[in-house]
Structure prediction request, 233 residues.
Amino acid sequence: MKVHRIQGIAFSSYLVETPSALFLIDSGFRWFEPLVLHKIRSIGREIEDLGLVVLTHPHIDHVGAVPALLTHTDFEIAAHPTSRAALATGGRAFSRPTQTWTKAVQWLATTALPLLRLPPIVPTVLPADGERLDRFGLAGALLYTPGHSQWCISLVLDDGTTLAGDLIIGAGHMTTRVSPPAMAADPAGALVSMRKLLDAGAKRFMPAHGRAFGAADVRALLGRLTAEAATAR
Prediction:
């Protein structure tokens, strides 16, 4: 099993490759479609090998290319069971800013998203918390990891590789160190979800924003945030 990064501007999706199938973790914006197709061809595979797309949460930068990819082939779409209404809007939802610079992102979202014509996305797989994906040929499980949004799910592969969307931000994306989500529906809940992933055996994190990092970085982040909270009391 191999994990291939599909790098865009300030965003990454991931292609998990097994001998029998391909699995896409988040599709990126609408304009990500050619990047996904190029990555698939560059590893000697075909779009028809794509069996499952996992949407870590229903925000436009994670789901926007799904309708375009569906014009090439059929595939299953996995998403949090409560995200169906948000996906029906094509990804117009967004989370609250937790940092000053993300207030600009919030303004852009509230201004631009209502103007876009976004086709609805219909999930076909609504996993239970901790549900394994062996029936699709993928050795791993999907866990509910709310925090960035209430609809977040993360994929933990059996080798410890973890794809958690926007739950944790890697260094290099508006930050020099591993950081909590810059926009979050529930910042405290995000910390609970981070611990949940560590308990589930997460070892190497592949974030949607920023560079990859390890479990030790997440433990350090949790320790830092706990210390900051104690100081603020």
